[in-house]
Design brief:
The complex is a heterodimer of chains A (86) and B (136). By secondary structure, chain A is mostly helical. Chain A has one domain (18-82). Chain A has helices spanning 2-14, 22-42, 52-64, 69-82. The longest helix of chain A is centred in the middle third of the chain and has 21 residues, at 22-42. Chain A is elongated, with a radius of gyration of 18 Å. Chain B has one domain (3-126). Helix content of chain B is 39%, strand content 17%. Chain B has four helices and four strands. Chain B starts with a helix and ends in a 13-residue tail after the last strand. Classes of the chains: A mainly alpha (86), B alpha+beta (136). Chains A and B meet through helix 1 and helix 2 of A and helix 2, helix 3 and helix 4 of B.
Chain lengths: 86, 136
């Protein structure tokens, strides 16, 4: 009986998951640290005095995504497009 | 859904999600091995099923002896506690992955150095960011 209840709870809970993150987690462990360092330097407001506000927003997002490799990869592209200095 | 998928799902449920667990673990191990062999990562990690901490159990937990998700670091010379914490962060900060693990019946994340025995465990339910979804 316990097994059946658990089965239905897992099914319901499984619906809150929107993507498979397995590879993203491993990629993060291996590559995110370096990418984070690079992006935090690139988007730092002090390095972008002419676009300070925009850089601040991007920098905050980089810090928030420190452990999420996929998000950092997307931010890399965005930073390249939006911050002209780079 | 084909008849094959239907029976595969039933069998998977009867085996407490074992097919899905093995797929996830196999995928992680293949990636860890690849990154280590090509020199991108200096630690060789190995994911496996282990016994969990019964204090961390939640309503979807498997039996305690298979409710732990363990990552053992095979080459653990000079392994620092901060390094273990950092590896754990990549999992605990990713609430989707934590949910994935919980839906597979895991309740404990264990990160352990293989030879020197340094180990830390984490309760997955504390990191799932559940908002209005209640987990006991």
């Amino acid at each position: 009986m316990n097994f059946i209840i658990r089965f239905f709870k897992r099914r319901a809970f499984g619906k809150t998951i929107d993507s498979d993150q397995t590879i993203n987690v491993v990629n993060g462990m291996v590559k995110a640290r370096q990418l984070y360092k690079k992006l935090s330097a690139m988007s730092h407001p002090d390095r972008n005095p002419e676009q300070r506000e925009e850089a601040e927003g991007l920098f905050k997002r980089v810090v928030k995504s420190k452990y999420d490799y996929e998000a950092l990869k997307m931010l890399e592209k965005e930073i390249g497009e939006r911050l002209s200095q780079i | 859904m084909s008849i094959g998928d239907f029976f595969r799902n039933i069998l998977n449920s009867l085996l407490d999600g074992s097919f899905e667990r093995m797929r996830l673990i196999g995928q992680m191990n293949a990636a860890f091995k690849e990154f280590f062999t090509c020199g991108e990562f200096n630690r060789l990690c190995h994911a496996s099923i282990s016994q969990g901490n019964s204090q961390y159990a939640h309503e979807m937990s498997s039996l305690w002896f298979r409710s732990g998700f363990k990552i053992s670091i095979e080459n653990d010379t000079n392994l620092k506690e901060s390094e273990i914490d950092e590896l754990a962060h990549y999992i605990t900060e990713n609430s989707t992955f934590v949910r994935q693990l919980m839906a597979l019946g895991f309740d404990t994340l264990i990160i352990k150095g293989k030879t020197r025995g340094q180990s830390k465990d984490y309760a997955l339910k504390h990191y799932a960011n559940l908002k209005d979804y209640f987990i006991a």
